[in-house]
Design a protein that fits this description.
Helix content: 25-40%
Number of strands: 4
Radius of gyration: 15 Å
Distance between the termini: 56 Å
Number of domains: 1
Order of helices and strands: HEEHEEH
Shape: globular
Length: about 120
């Protein structure tokens, strides 16, 4: 039996396995979420609708980028996670940090307007 490899934070390195209807859609989503918790929840955090959820922007570091790109065969540089009030975590992947930050700015504006 092969031992699962661990990243530099002791988290199992994902393989791309799909979970189905659970808290995370794939083990990659779960891994990125766990890694973001080591950094305090992501590069930027934005609560949504008085406890109705939370957005997090995560700019991938070299290790995260390497693992994600190896699994998906692309050049993902950032993700935006949304943890819903029911605990489900949705993750959107972005090819560039600029693209993620542009979407993040729209989310921020939308959340701010709804909070007024």
């Amino acid at each position: 039996m092969e031992t699962q490899k661990l990243d530099n934070l002791g988290e199992p390195i994902p393989t791309g396995e799909r979970y189905g209807p659970e808290k995370f859609y794939t083990d990659v989503d779960a891994w990125l979420y766990a890694r973001s918790l080591h950094d305090g929840g992501g590069d930027e955090i934005l609560p949504y609708d008085g406890g109705g959820g939370c957005y997090a922007l995560l700019i991938l570091n070299d290790e995260e980028r390497s693992v994600v790109n190896k699994i998906y065969g692309d050049t993902t540089e950032a993700v935006i996670m949304f943890e819903r009030s029911d605990g489900i975590v949705e993750v959107e992947y972005y090819y560039t940090e600029k693209e993620a930050r542009d979407v993040w700015a729209m989310i921020k504006e939308d959340v701010t307007q709804k909070g007024e």
